[in-house]
């Protein structure tokens, strides 16, 4: 994953080219990515083919879009590799949906392992509850981050679990995977009626200076002047809100659930 226009990618995330491939630069690039490129599932809803790896770079950089965790993390891995970092892919599964515990799809999530001077760090730019800075893979005590407190916990079967503010968020394999290993689960996400990102469900999320903006179907939650604002978007307001809060220009309106009866009047 090295055929990347590094300058164009850095411009996309508003970052300067790092002088060297060290931890400080990795942390800087991770935070810039999280604050510039949204997690979003519009293409799943619109039945647009999803590509990962260098194929996702074109979507994120050239078309200035976001993507799901596979798209975002493999695209970021391509940038890091082009800059000279040693990057590996790790497979995981979600353990919580923000409301309650669950056991998500096998291979349903992906994180990056980045090796710097013989030490490994965990990086994730495709998950709402991800840390904003790399997590030390070998550390088992709490790691403080701008997005909360994280712990890496060993499991009896050799995996690890990522705990964020006391909530078990992801179970992660420790063995390295090839990008092709994720293709079957990507096909499932794109085609299965049981997939959480097909049909009429839309998710989008972006870390913004005033606070995270989040979209679930028609409901937009954002912050303005220190206030948390929640609004339900009709068909006319939806594209403009997506452009303003996530920087995405939609060519067509996705399949959305009906407006709630109490919001239609």
From TrEMBL:
Lineage top rank: taxon: Bacteria
One Pfam family linked to the record: Acetyltransf_2
InterPro entries recorded: Arylamine_N-AcTrfase, Papain-like_cys_pep_sf
Signal peptide extent: none
Entry keyword set: Transferase
Molecular function, one GO term: acetyltransferase activity
Family classification: Belongs to the arylamine N-acetyltransferase family.
Protein name: Acetyltransferase
């Amino acid at each position: 994953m090295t055929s990347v226009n590094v300058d164009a990618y850095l411009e996309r995330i508003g970052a300067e080219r790092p002088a060297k491939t060290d931890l400080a630069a990795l942390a800087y690039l991770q935070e810039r990515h999280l604050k510039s490129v949204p997690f979003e599932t519009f293409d799943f809803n619109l039945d647009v083919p999803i590509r990962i790896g260098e194929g996702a770079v074109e979507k994120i950089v050239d078309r200035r879009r976001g993507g799901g965790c596979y798209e975002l993390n493999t695209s970021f891995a391509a940038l890091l590799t082009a800059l000279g970092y040693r990057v590996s892919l790790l497979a995981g599964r979600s353990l919580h949906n923000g409301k309650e515990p669950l056991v998500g799809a096998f291979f349903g999530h992906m994180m990056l392992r980045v090796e710097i001077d013989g030490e490994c760090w965990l990086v994730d730019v495709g998950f709402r509850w991800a840390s904003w800075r790399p997590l030390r893979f070998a550390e088992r005590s709490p790691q403080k981050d701008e997005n909360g407190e994280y712990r890496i916990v060993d499991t009896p079967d050799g995996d690890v679990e990522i705990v964020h503010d006391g909530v078990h968020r992801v179970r992660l394999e420790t063995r390295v995977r090839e990008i092709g290993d994720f293709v079957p689960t990507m096909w499932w996400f794109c085609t299965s009626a049981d997939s959480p990102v097909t049909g009429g469900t839309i998710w989008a999320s972006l870390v913004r200076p005033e606070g995270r903006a989040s979209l679930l179907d028609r409901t937009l939650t954002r912050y303005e002047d220190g206030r948390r604002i929640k609004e339900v978007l009709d068909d006319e307001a939806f594209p403009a809100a997506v452009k303003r809060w996530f920087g995405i220009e939609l060519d067509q309106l996705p399949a959305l659930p009906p407006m709630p009866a109490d919001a239609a009047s």
